[in-house]
Specification:
Elements (H helix, E strand, L loop, with lengths): L2 H9 L3 H14 L3 H8 L4 H12 L20 H9 L2 E7 L2 E6 L5 H10 L2 E6 L2 H13 L12 H11 L2 H16 L4 E7 L2 E8 L2 E9 L3 H12 L10 E9 L2 E11 L4 E8 L8 H4 L3 H11 L4 E6 L6 H12 L6 E5 L10 E4 L8 H8 L6 E4 L5 H12 L3 E6 L6 H8 L4 H7 E13 L5 E2 L3 H7 L2 H8 L7 E2 L11 E12 L2 H5 L6 H11 L5 H10 L5 H8 L1
Parallel strand pairs: 2-3, 10-14, 10-15, 11-12, 11-13, 13-14
Antiparallel strand pairs: 1-2, 4-5, 4-9, 5-6, 7-8, 8-9, 15-18, 16-17
Helix pairs in contact: 2-3, 7-9, 8-10, 14-15, 15-17, 19-22, 22-23
């Protein structure tokens, strides 16, 4: 089998990366697959599948070895020697060994196995599987440290355990796999006597590994050490930050530890500057909505609000708006909690509530810095809301977010905070509500076999008619290697746009405002969140299931 063709066709290695790796190999020697891993073009998880396809060895399945432990029938030195070659002895019977290894092409491993004069059955294992085993063997000879208060000796031993190779390699492997799959977060949680590992990919959690409970404390401790937390504190929530380079990527990782009944839940959020593209075309805004927003961005004063729940992409959308306006002749200042991504040419300010520097205090300060454009991360209280709106009346273009379910509810939310109605009417330019739906994988989606049934059940034909779409393209998610068999790759914005025009200003902001505002939008043929989702369905971008999940 042609290795290079296999790498391109089944592991999505680009031709340019393959050429670079081949050139490096010719100059410095080395194994092609190892060079690709160092380049970040191939993952450790891919490696096992690559060897399986090339050599025909079966993949290791832990379920086939439920009592996986070091065999007493061979010398302990044999286990230690195999460990050096990233291999483990699974089973010994007579003169036959069953082993799992990460690299069956390792010359030193082959020579060692030949010297043992045994017949072999070889399984290909991943890095995570091997490190889990190494940790399990190591922990059999050590006391389990898991108490509320640590003594000095116990704390020192825990630090030592957290810095040893099995813990370090296992954690690095989990992070590398998360990055390769495009995860935004990694969750480590005690669950049913195990340590569950889940990745959030395109907004949806996927369980990827279940580790032995004994690994919980060393891995948790290592993360606490790296992120600057107190390893002895297990009763209070803690937050930290890690800066590291892994899989050829520079990473900022926000780490959160939360005490649970069974231990601690650790959540890691990966912040990758190069993975974010602040371009209007990437957001996936519908063409008519984008035209309306572009008109608003040309204004020099007023407030533009984004609304939606946590994780709906509000900040990313605002960053994209700012990027459109970011030129040398305007001064842009943002006020954020926290500053997650650094934007070139924009002044970004981190608030610090512990010293009294909250959104309101920060906003009072930055208006004295002569900005043209201001972004306030979130409007949480009356004072921040009033300063933001008043800043718009004094010649600034202001962007911010509020947590509401739809666009019209932003008015009632601000009124609930105590903002006067006249100030809203005078300052607001537009409100954009947003959700994020998973985008269909371009490699494997197919025309839907249930298109007719869906068009009868949902107003898809009317949506297409209103939008002037002649060719309805309803598609189904399938799944392939490119999208990790999910059927989806990336996310797309679903929006509701409400312009604060004269008609909206004239509507009294009472309990009838929201239905009246919706009716006004309908008269202008503007879609609500669900209808914009249907628009993305008939254009073949996402599925009904996704729209109902995020906007239903």
């Amino acid at each position: 089998m042609d290795t290079k063709k296999l790498l391109i066709d089944e592991f999505s290695v680009s031709l340019s990366d393959l050429e670079k790796a081949s050139a490096y190999q010719e100059r410095y020697s080395g194994r092609l697959e190892h060079i690709l891993i160092n380049m970040g073009s191939l993952t450790e998880e891919d490696l096992a599948l690559l060897y399986h396809k090339l050599l025909g060895y079966p993949l290791f399945d832990a379920d086939l070895f439920p009592n996986w432990q070091a065999s007493d029938s061979v010398n302990f030195d044999v286990h230690e020697q195999l460990k050096k070659f990233d291999s483990v002895l699974l089973k010994v019977s007579s003169n036959e060994w069953e082993i799992a290894c990460k690299d069956p092409l390792n010359v030193d491993l082959s020579q060692f196995l030949i010297s043992q004069q045994v017949s072999l059955s070889v399984f290909i294992a991943t890095e995570v599987q091997l490190q889990s085993y190494f940790f399990e063997i190591q922990s059999k000879t050590e006391a389990n440290i898991d108490v509320e208060e640590l003594t000095g000796d116990e704390e020192a031993r825990l630090r030592e355990l957290a810095s040893e190779a099995p813990t370090v390699n296992l954690l690095n492997s989990l992070i590398t796999k998360a990055l390769a799959r495009g995860a935004s977060d990694m969750h480590l949680e005690p669950y049913k006597g195990r340590f569950r590992v889940r990745y959030r990919i395109d907004g949806v959690l996927h369980e990827v590994d279940s580790l032995a409970a004994k690994m919980r404390l060393p891995i948790t401790t290592r993360l606490k050490i790296l992120s600057g937390m107190d390893i002895a504190e297990k009763r209070r929530p803690q937050d930290g930050k890690i800066e590291m380079r892994i899989a050829n990527q520079d990473l900022d990782i926000r780490v959160s530890a939360l005490p649970l009944n069974e231990g601690e839940s650790i959540v890691m959020r990966f912040l990758r500057q190069e993975s974010i593209n602040y371009d209007m075309s990437v957001l996936g805004l519908s063409q008519d909505t984008q035209q309306l927003i572009n008109q608003d961005l040309r204004k020099t004063t007023g407030v533009i609000l984004m609304t939606g729940p946590t994780g709906s992409g509000k900040t990313t959308t605002l960053y994209t708006f700012l990027n459109e306006l970011n030129t040398s002749n305007v001064k842009i200042i943002t006020l954020e909690d926290p500053v997650e991504y650094q934007l070139e040419g924009i002044n970004q300010v981190q608030i610090n509530s512990e010293i009294g520097f909250d959104f309101a205090a920060g906003l009072r300060s930055i208006v004295r810095q002569d900005p043209d454009i201001i972004m306030v991360g979130e409007i949480r209280d009356k004072e921040t809301a009033q300063i933001a709106l008043q800043s718009a009346l004094t010649g600034h273009l202001v962007f911010s977010t509020v947590h509401t379910n739809d666009a019209a509810s932003a008015y009632t939310r601000l009124l609930d905070l105590g903002v006067e109605e006249f100030l809203l009417n005078a300052a607001l330019v537009s409100v954009v509500a947003q959700r994020l739906a998973r985008r269909l994988c371009s490699h494997c989606s197919i025309p839907s076999s249930q298109a007719k049934e869906l068009m009868l059940k949902y107003p898809l034909e009317q949506t297409a008619l209103n939008a002037g779409i002649n060719n309805i393209d309803i598609r189904d998610a399938v799944g392939c290697e490119y999208c990790n068999n999910s059927g989806y790759k990336g996310r797309i914005a679903i929006n509701e746009y409400l312009r604060c025009d004269d008609e909206i200003k004239a509507i009294p902001k009472d309990d009838q405002f929201i239905p009246k505002a919706h009716k006004h939008n309908v008269s202008l043929k503007r879609r609500n969140l669900m209808e914009d989702g249907f628009y993305k369905v008939v254009t073949g971008v996402t599925t009904i299931d996704e729209v109902l999940r995020v906007a239903g």
